[in-house]
Queue: 4 jobs
Job 1
Amino acid sequence: MDAEVALTFRSQYALIFWQEGKYKHTEELLEEVLQKQKQVLGEDHPETLQTLGNLATSYSDLGEHQRAQELKSVVLEKQTQLLGDNHPHTLLTMGNLANSYWALGEHQKAKELKSVVLEKQKQFLGEDHPDTLLTMGNLANTYWALGEHQRAQELMSVVLEKRIQVLGENHPHTLYAMENLANSYSDPAEHQRAQQLWSVVPEKRKQFLGEDHPDTLLTMGNVANSYSNLGEHQWAQELMSVVLQKQKQFLSEDHPDTLLTMGNLANSYSNLGEHQRAQQLRSVVLEKRKQILGENHPHTLHAMGNLAISYLALGEHEEAKDLMGVVLEKRKQLLGEDHPDTLETMGNLASAYSNLGEHQRAQELKSVVVEKQKQFLGEDHPHTRLTIGNLANSYSALGEHQRAQELRSVVLEKRKQLLGEDHPDTLLTMGNLASSYSNLGEHQRAEEPRASVELNFPKKAV
């Protein structure tokens, strides 16, 4: 058989492995093909470069993002030299390189590169071309990572609509766009919209990819997160446990998808009050993140922040404060002072100060966070409402009951409006407001919110 034809067949076998989610087999076969193509075709032949790009993708799928980035940079340089800046293959590689930057936590570099690619693809391929839509979706994810959530969600909606029109509802790229949009519905008021999308995607994944395919497992993990968002933490924990075992079996314990699920399972344990189990799992995730991604990667910092929250829940407030202090400084440095993740860490550090009795420091930090969240997220965002409520708690601890009462009244009205009168968060705020009225000596006014709380959570008979 002709050597070139034989290499083409082996490349096709590698593609079959990739489609089945067998990324290690894909990597091994592509490395073999690449060496032979270099000998038979030469290093700059289009098919050699295509294999080089595919091998980089397999590295990404295995979580080896640094190796992927280095290989994609080589491919991009050669394609730019041989094909030009505006060739579709060059633009595709440029987009793939941007994805590697994103995976390595270099979100600003990813955004800049994806923006260039998108404009060129619109110009040379058209707005509805699959490659253009792929870049548009990736740029939306980058906006989200940079805290530009409104821009991200708007772009995700455009991508989904166009993919349904161009590719149909069952195409893998359409399903991927559905998942991204569903994940962007983080506000409790949007959880129902997220559930509608999650009711469609998993069955289609199972149907077209199989139950154990990595994309199917990732989708099932996202479904479990949606259960958590709806307060169904037991269901979420059970589903995540199943997904985690399958990912360990089919992907490995150190794969990014496996570590993501492990962290989410820890969150479910935390939501169920099993803080010791959550802390143990989060410790494992953090160590693996440090080993694989380094101490300054956003995913590592996220894992570090979650472990600090476990320490907080377990009453280890000094450890929580120290760890959150480290996370805050790194996030300020890497993301900026106004990024949502930085503000969330600042709020968590303030909680640690409160638990240590350092109420003045807690109040000062919470005041900063509230003002920034109002500016960048809006007054009605769940994170803003949560921080305002926490700030009220600090005022109460400092004996400033009038200011606490005023803030709690604002939070209560917004929660009634956005969540409803019977939502647990609304009832919690009612109870806190009743305490404020009592602290101010307004016992009659305290009775109304207290009665509402007791009506929804009646005391057990003794």
Job 2
Amino acid sequence: MLALSVALATGCAGREGVDSINEDGEARSSTPPTSAKPNAPSDPGPQRAQVPAGAVIPSDFALAEGWPGPGEDEGGPNGLEGPSRKLPPLTLTACGTTIFVPNGSDRLSAVWTNPEDHRSRMLLTFGSAVTAREYAASVTDLYRSCPTQDTGDGYTTLAEVVTTDLTEDSAAVVLHYLMGTEPAVGLGLVQVVRSGTAVLVETGSNEGGSGSRPEEQRRQYLRESTAALHDVVDAMSAFGSTANRNDRAAAGLPSWSPAAPEGPDGAPLELGNIVLGGIEPVEVGRQVSGYIRQGYLVADQDPPCEGNDWLWRGELSDGLYVSADQDGTISALGTDEDGLETADGIGVGSSHRALMATYGELLAQVRADDQGVGWVFVKEGADWIAFSLGPVEQVTDTSRVDFIEVGRGEVLHHFSDAC
């Protein structure tokens, strides 16, 4: 079986590979020794002094929401433990590779147990959304790299990574087992959900997985687990988009809500998030003509400069901008209104401090354009998002974004003057 090496879970259901905890708080493996690194370093626990104030998890955070309530377990050692920082962290292991909780993160954990039903949750917060994203990706990458594992006792563990709809950055790992070629008893599940600077990891195991409809049992287990997480995930927004929206609201800018233009079929055209290289669904590098046909853009009948020029259609042109090459290829998009935002809630009005907390080391240092305006940007591959913070000599942590531009290739500022 594929060992989860989950330090919070107690007991064993089927072949989920969840370790138990002895009275000293040490993990005791219930899996073959080949499933985990024998000399892996111990987890150092959260380094609270390194956690930014905004990333500290409240002690009363409702981490156990969605789990069975009091009286729904069989008593004795069963039931809820936590939420608490004193519970040991989850460490996940597959194919000999173990992922520990990084230093500099805050952590809150909870466990619910019953015969043949074991559940653990660990909420982590990080200094930036980038670090949180990297940790979440490391968990899913662990299982993607180890879809099958033979344990040497006739059992094979199968791991399937699927995306979920809890956030824009959430996934689940469904674990099931074979004895020879037949489904064996035992289901396991690892949910990974990132929201802003927070990551939730939930593990679970039960006695399902065999019988005449094993695939339906796996789907049902995933559906029920995902549904039980909604309230916790909603509360996690305090560490992501909600925090960044509150930061923007402090700027006191009027909210911009332009009427949506209609598409060729008469239905309103909706805009999505500001993303690297685009304002969804419009992307830098594509032809203007395609978006004119869709109804997002129009030709400018009175361009400020020689040559062709284009505008966003209708009221969108009051706060959105487009620049394109002479052949009609979009080179940049921009906005100076507090209306659109990134998936993490960053938009016009966001503070420099919020940008640093969200993007961490990916955020470039402030640099001046030809007009003396200070800009910072985030770039992944060829695509980028740049944020104007006002006169460069006046930029501080409290400076506010007054223009957002997205592009591809070299970071240039296409909207600095009329042409």
Job 3
Amino acid sequence: MSVLSTKVEIEHDFAKLGHNNSTSFFITYETSLDKKESKYCKNVSLFLPLDGQYETKISFEISSKLLNDPGTMPNFNSSRVILSDLSVLTRRDSVWAAECNGNETCVPNLTFTSYISFDHNKDPYIIGSSETETINMTVQNIGEMAYDPCVRVHIIGVNVFMIPTDCQYEGSSDEIRLLCEPSRPIRTNNTWITGQIELEMKHLTNLDRNVTINMHLFDHCDDVATLNITKTIFVKAESGGIIAKGETDIGSIVNMTKEDIEENGKKIQHIYTINNNGRFNWKNLEVRVNLQKKPYIKYGSTPIIVIVYSPLKNSYPSCQVVSQNKTSMFYVCLIESLMKTVEIAKILIPMYIVPGVLDGILDKDKNVTTMSSVDLKLIGNDSKHESIITTITFQEASPVSIETLIIAIIVGICIFVIIIVILYRFGFLRRKKRDELNKLKRELKRQTIIRRSTMPSQALQAPDRSQLLESIEEANDNTQDLKQDKPAKQDPSLKK
């Protein structure tokens, strides 16, 4: 008996072969050649899922081989089937299974619409007005089946916060490029919604002027774009959130005594505090500082010190002198970053009032001043101005009056007495066991008096009687003292 073994194998991402209630990419079956027919046929099922991509052809290969070949057997039997040199045992081909009318090509007709949430036509987007914005795209097919359409999106000027499942990043990390493809073909009169692309708007700064979104629609993703759309949304930053405040470290009025004017001098400092209370982070804030030239004011080797306090790391921008004349010096300080609410910039201007210069100029009827100012260059022609004026006055050294001295002495004595009373009430300044010692002395005197009172009266002489009476009076006094400490019973012998 001769048997022919046949293997059918296909190559495709979606199509499969069906055999014995199962599917796979290949099947094998055997055919008996005993009937010696000129042709043997067998139908093989091909399973095509509805959502599969079939614009690419399905490749297949059919191969056969003869089992129990008579040429390989020891005993030849002429009734068995043999293979000739003209036998073709393998065939390779492909088949196109797309649901289209054309030959090997589908012709979809796609229309594209997009919605950008912060595109307000001619009105610019105000930076900081929202944390995130969105892009939504819709593709509709009114032509043949669209097996491999896609939309490519190129976003410039803003970061992407979240992308839908139908989109993925492509290209280098320096640019934001998205490739969006449907998970299934777009059938005729069907619509594909790409999903929502979420943009992160909080990183826009005062330096940003616009956001550009390029969208390209492809009927076939590996072909040229059939539609190109560019949206440019202008953005605008408002400068109201930058606040500057100036003050002198020891007050706007500085008093100078004669000793300060002639010998000591005095140190003061102008302090400007710049806060960003706006809705976005500020970049490259330019601050122009104006310092007055006065003969009695001396600036340090670094006239201006800038500190930006940050939760991560403080920075120290430098200032450059740009011009000066006989009365003023002008500096420019560049603050590279001032994040909203979390960073604070301080501009410090240390000054020293030189001794000996104001002698003869400053008196009780005449004051002098020193001034500094800052100008913050904001957006366009917007700017903010802040200045500090410090008035230097003469203060006479007044002696202490007698009345003040007397009051001070009385108050000091009262405080001292109060302290002593408090210490005494809490047991300080007392001898330990003093009460017990006094009580013991009184008890000894009482016992002595009792013993004397029990002696025979005839033995007592006149001087001794008077002494005894004095002792009894003293004992009575001591008894009264003992009653205050602790009541005691009177000895019966004392009554006799």
Job 4
Amino acid sequence: MCHQTVVISTKQRGQFQSIRFSIDGKDETPINSRVGLRASVMALCLCRYIILSCHPRHRHQALSATARNNNFSSLYCPPNHCQKFTSALSIDPRHRHKRFRASFCAQSSSIMQNPPQGYRRNVGICLMNPSSKKIFAASRLDIPDAWQMPQGGIDESEDPRTAAARELREETGVTTADIVAEVPYWLTYDFPPAVREKLNRQWGSDWKGQAQKWFLFKFNGNDDEINLLGDGTEKAEFGEWAWMSAEQVINHAVDFKKPVYEEVLSVFSTYLQ
């Protein structure tokens, strides 16, 4: 039987915890109901990967052992996901991977694509310099001491990936960059009262915060491509820019965005080393 071990990071009570996830359960922490929805969905995605990457003769063993050793009967996720997973055990091993791939992909996609209500849909862009592994950050013109990574709203019916490339171009002028990773769930932050009042007056809305889909871009150009006037289609937002380490980016961010930045950079950490 094939053996796979994956580490999932999840946030519990404001702190990150790593959960080691395995097929055989040896010397690993089983996933259970305390993990939470985000890690549960990630775990199911990883189960799909494990099942499909195993040799067909071993998939039945892999799926059965994963469910048994990681206690999926108590996994906290929408009932239809657990049902799809457990029912897969009864499917003929010769057809299981096809059924599991079709049913789970459709279900997981809907979860990832629906942000929580009351939050403005937004994208965040982590632009990485591949040679130094540092991250683009810029100071806001309206709040000079506040530095941030590019971000912006998602237009009606716009795909988040398309929105991320558009916002990167509009805010930095960068077009020679490729998406190499994304955070597979929405991250939210609440506006402080004064910020909420100001922005909602500006937008004519009543958002309590933003729900963000984050993407990691690899910068393929030269520094002289970066232009804080952007592509000229929108008003400039930034005054200065710099390549920063992950720690510097977090330290320079406004307080209400720091938890999101910490989680984003934790997810992308393997690419930034």
